[in-house]
Amino acid sequence: MSLLKPFPARTPIYSLEPFNKNSEDIESFHHYVYRLATAHCLNTRKFTLWCLNLRKYAVYLHENCHAAAFSTQELLVNLLEKLSKRDDLSEMTLLYFKEVISDLNLYRKYQAWCPICLTEKGHSGYEKLIWTLNEITVCTIHEQALIDKCHSCNKQQLQYVDYGHCRYCLYDLSNTESTKKASIKDLQHSKEVINNLIMAPRNKEIPVENSISSLMDIHQLKKIKDLSIATSIGQMTLKSKKHHFKTLFRLSHYFKCPLYMLLDKRLIQTSS
Predict the structure, then answer these.
(1) Which of 269, 244, 242 lies closest to 257 in space, CA to CA?
(2) 232 and 123 Cβ atoms separated by less than 8 Å
(3) Phi, psi of 45, deg, nearest 5
(4) By the 8 A CB rule, do 210 and 102 touch?
């Protein structure tokens, strides 16, 4: 009887494990793509262009990075999962909420980071998913404002590059002497985003309808016009299938309902 373990199935590309899965510090998908390309001794543009055969999207992904739409991001996630035989890459994105959240201005176009996090042992100089969101402006761990420009040359950093060093002057981005202290309001908001989106409980199927109509019934609001008057949010905005972050948080606070429940009608129906 052989004691040798069978070799895992071969995959067309490396099956890298995402950093810090199932935590608020999970790696961003964009940094994962960079890391995967580097593992294949390619830059990200060549990796998407030749290895993945994404000629149509290679330039767009490289130039727009975090600003890429859900549809483009989903295409790349599905392709990488197929080639690497993984099923957890979408966890590094917000694709789970793609049917109920607008992707307009959802992600940052340029890098943001906490220099203290970058200096900590075991961080490995990677980009966190939460740092890619426009709504996250502070580090909730160190209660400092995120940095978005090199301390040496004052230039913003594009994505898909050697994270932790300025692509222009090679300055160590963790060498920032001091950062702006985070306000209590920004800390509370960032924690709310993390708890309600990154760490929110999820079903196997993605939510396809928000809970606004159900919550209106609970609060005895008969028409969208009534909700519009109560919240000072335009009627056309409220009628949209997908909403921007700011609209969603205003509705969440008005209904006194956790954001993740507002985004998934099934959760409201279950709790009723």
Answers:
(1) 269
(2) no
(3) -65, -45
(4) no
* Residue 190, both tokens: 């960032």
| Amino acid at position 109, single letter | K
Contact 169, 150 (CB under 8 A): yes
Alpha carbons 172 and 205: distance in angstroms, whole number: 42
CB 163 within 8 Å of CB 34 = yes
- Rounded to whole angstroms, the Cα distance separating 215 from 152 reads 50
Question: If residue 138 lies in a helix (H) or strand (E), which one and from where to where?
Answer: strand 138-139
> Residue 244: exposed, middle, or buried by beta-carbon count in 10 A (0-12, 13-18, 19+)?
middle
Nearest to 237 by CA among 9, 227, 65: 227
Q: Where are the alpha helices (DSSP H) in 10-138?
A: 29-39, 44-46, 55-64, 70-84, 115-119
Closest to 66 measured CA to CA, from 142, 140, 136, 151: 136
Q: Which residues does the chain have with pLDDT short of 50? A: 66-67
pLDDT for res 50: 74
112 burial type by CB count under 10 A (0-12 exposed, 13-18 middle, 19+ buried): buried
What length does the chain have?
272
Give residue 170's identity as a one-letter amino acid code. L
Q: Tell me the sheet residues that pair with 107.
A: 133
Pairing of strands 144-145, 138-139: antiparallel
